[in-house]
Fold this sequence. Notes:
The complex is a heterodimer. Chain A folds into 2 domains: 2-71; 80-152, no CATH class. Helices cover 73% and strands 6% of the residues of chain A. Chain A has helices spanning 4-27, 42-63, 73-111, 118-139, 147-152, and strands at residues 2-3, 33-34, 37-38, 69-71. Chain B is mainly α. Chain B has one domain (2-232, 241-495). Chain B is 74% helix and 1% strand. Chain B has helices at 2-14, 17-35, 41-52, 57-82, 91-102, 106-140, 144-158, 166-181, 206-224, 238-247, 252-267, 271-286, 298-314, 316-322, 328-339, 348-351, 353-384, 389-408, 411-429, 435-458, 469-495, 499-503; strands spanning 183-184, 191-192.
Amino acid sequence: MISRRALEILTATLTGVFGLAVVISSLDNGIGWSSDGVDAGTFPFLTGVIIVAASLYNLARGALAGTAVAVSRSDLKRGAALFLPAAAFVGFIPWLGFYLASAGYMFGVLALPKHLTLPRSLAIAVATPLFLYVVFERLFEVTLPHGALAAAFGY
Amino acid sequence: MENLQSLLHGFTIAVTAPHLVLMVTGVLLGILVGVLPGLGAPNGVSLLLPLTFGMQPVSAIILLSSMYWGALFGGSVTSILFNIPGEPSSVATTFDGYPMARDGRPTTALATAFGSAAFGALVGVVLITFLASWVAQVALAFGPAEYFAVYFLAFASFVGMGGAAPMKTVVAMAIGFAIAAIGIDTVSGSVRLTMGIDELVKGVSFVVAVMGLFGIGELLIAVEEEFHARAVSSKIEWREVFRALAALPRHGIALLRSAAIGCWMGITPGGPTAASFMSYGIAKRFSRRGQRFGAGEVEGVIAPETADHAAGTSALLPMLSLGIPGSATAAVMMGGLMIWGLNPGPMLFVDQKDFVWGLIASMYVGNIVAVTLVLLTVPVFAALMRIPFVIVAPLIVIICAVGAYSVSNSYLDVVLMLGFGVVGYLFKKLSYPLAPLVLATVIGDKAEDAFRQSMLISKGSLGIFFANRLVTSLVIAGFALLFLPLVLQILRALRGGAPQRAASEEIPIT
């Protein structure tokens, strides 16, 4: 269970760290005015400072926020059930390639929790990459990654 | 009216059986690429271009421009149904279109979007027909300072609206600017904010951010909120389509205002994206039901769609009359023009009268063909909403991944997209507004470039933004839009009616 306060603090910290990274990174480009006009780092630097300042404010306000539950245990479970397979799918793309990974992903999320029967899940799992292949690779000549596995077989 | 005669002559060229067949083909293909994120009008144009080499230039441009109309219409479909905008200009459509679809009104949302889009496009074409030469002059008067003023106007009309906590809005917008700055800086050529990751040199495309923030983020929110609340009827609701279209004239003022904003932003090179955001912002401010924008308000769909298409159409004019392509699609089309042996530019209107007026006439007919076809597909697309969530959710993940990858064939983008999904979830959960972030991502670097170029020209003096009538009035209009809500609020507070406004600041999240 995650309270509203914890979520506010987490988000404000994330944005603050991002802002800090922007500030530090933009210093390399130079800030201020030079013979080339406004230096490349000036605007990112300013936005970084604004992000940090506003994040600190949000952090302070967030720390004062109520401790009411923002994400309940069942929320978290459902969210994870959606996000973790998606992350796994993205993680497998470099190895399996887009087509195999999407087939496995569809089959995994449909058949394993028994949302659909095995044949139906299998049909959708095969149809999805097939559709992607025909439309993207054949029709519009947009190549999706084939993955290390396919490369090993010479595709 | 010399133009009217030329137009009538153009119709005799455009409305022939083979050309109508080309239009239908082009529109259908356009809808396909428009609906599929990851593919867009440029893909379709490049696919069709080789087929056009043997054709008459008029036939070729009719085929390509019809495809462009189809893609423009198709882009709104995924925005409304799945909260995934396929292109920058349809982001603003998600704000009210998606809530409408989730409410069980996908048919109404789609029909309204298409109807108002067609209206916007037709206004744009009429403008091209009668003001071609004047419009070309306006576009030529635009320097960096004017560009910046237009972007400033777009921001000003959008900022300050909505009930989000002010500091959260500031963070969201500043993050958008920072994301826009990642990659090669176009003014100095130096590499910015890559934080040591080489692949980031190409920058982070808006598409990657939007697919994650809107597409994945929305999924994560939806999975929590016992999603099956949407009661979409299983019958194909033709009557619903007509009812939505018949209701459009009731929003006549919104339609006209949005079309005017769209045409203005299309001629001045603000572009369709800035136009749709600006139109949405202004509609929210001036509509009687503005408070309810964002929860599925019809005018919230009408405003961005009308402006988007009005801008998209009127933006074709600079391409023809000046030879400046306003978008990737226009650039590919211009390549086509040159291959067919035509030179875009001022002389085109003199040398190639048949071609130009045939094209303009085909815009009228093409848009009518497009809106008819796309309305026919509404029930089919609305039916997509009935697919169970367990199947749709992974499909959306896959589609977002394809979309993110195909922007620049980069795997890193897919990973970033997923990261943006988590950010989108957190932001939505804590009511950080996403719209300012997206707007800043889309036009942030352009605004910055324009500002720095103007500073170079003026050697650091801000006076350049008040140097002539055009830029001064743009800047003043921007400031007016920025401070108008504040002034109104103060006036209201003086009259003692402030409490309602304060109450809406923190929306409790359940």
